[in-house]
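Q: My labmate handed me this sequence with no annotations at all. I'd like to see what the chain might look like in three dimensions before we decide whether it's worth expressing. Could you predict it?
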Amino acid sequence: MTVRIMKPAEVARYSIEKKPLFILDVRNEDAFADWKIEGESIEYLNIPYFDLLDGVDDIKGELPRDRDILVVCAKEGSSQMIAEMLSDEGMDVAYLEGGMKAWSEYLEPVKVGTLKSGGELYQFVRLGKGCLSYMVIDADKAAVIDATRMTDVFLDFAKEKGATIEHVFDTHLHADHISGGNVIAEATGATYYLPSQDAEEVVFDYKKLADGLRVTVGETSVEAVFSPGHTSGSTSFVVDEAYLLTGDILFIDSIGRPDLAGMADNWVGDLRTTLYNRYEQLSEELVVLPAHFMEMKEVNADGSVAKQLSVLFSENHGLQVEDENEFRVLVTENLPPQPNAYQEIRKTNMGVLTPDAETQREMEIGPNRCAVR
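A: Here is what I predict for the chain of 373 residues:
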C-alpha cells in the first residue's frame, strides 16, 4: 500500500475538530513523555524506533483498524521508515511530514472577531507549542502582537490580506519561545514596541511601551495596559475596546508564572495586583486573548483560544485565591519545570545571542511551561 504523507495542517484538524486519530510515536520514551501531539480524540502508542528495526509484527495487533494511523518521530526519517514497514504488512498508515519539529512550528490562523470599523482580528494558534500570536487588520493597515520566529507566516498573511504592517508589539520579553517581532519590524519598516523594564539588555532599537500608550490601526485602537507580574514590564493590550490581550499574565485555565527571570518572590505581589486589582477595573465584557494555552481543552470549537473576562473571574482557579499568603504559595511553590533553554531564549530575544535557524528550532523543542499549574 502507498504510504500517505500527512502535513501539520491536516493533523491540526484532527486536534481541533476532535477527530479520531491513532499516533504511533517512535521517539524515545523520555521525549514522548515530555511532549506530544495533543487532542481529545487522539490515542497513542509509544515504541522507540530502535525497538522496531527488526520488524513490526509484534505491534500490528496493537494498532486499530477503525481509525486513521499516523507515525511520528522527531524529524520525519524514522517515522517514514516505520510507516513503510507497516505498509508492507498491508496496513494503511501515514507519517508526519517534517516530524515533531514541523509540528512545533505550525501556526493555524483563526479569525477571532470583526472589529467595529469592519476590520478583523486574527489569532495564530501554535498547536504544537501552545503559543498564540495576533494580527489586527483594518483599512489595509496591520499590527502584530507576540509574533513567533516563523516570521514568513505573518508577512505572507498580511500580504495576502493586502495590509501593510505598521506596528509590532511584544507584551514582554519572552522566555519560552523566540520572538519574531524585531525581524518583522526590520522587514517592513514597522515600529517595534517592547516594555523598557524588560529591555535593559536589549541591543537593538525599539520604542518603549508605556501604560496608556494608544496607537491606531486604520480606525481601530490598540491601548497598552501596564500589567506586571510575569515580568516586570509585562503589558496587556485592549483592542477595539472589546478584546484584552493578556500576554503571559492571564490564561484561560491558569495564570502566569513570575519566576522565569529568577524573581518570583519579588514579582508575586505585582502579579496579584495585576490580576486582582488592575484587571478588575477593566470591563468584564472584554474577551481575553492570552499569549499561550496549556491544554487542548482550552481550544474552542472554532480553533480559537478565547473567553470573556467575566467568565475567567468566576472559573479560573488563579483568580479565586482570596488569601495573599495562599496566593504566594500557589505561584512560587507550584511551578512546572523551567522551559527548555529559557536563558538562551531570553538572550536571543535581547539580541545578545544570534543562533542559527536550526539551533533556534532545537532551543524551542518541548511544551509550553509559562503557567502556574
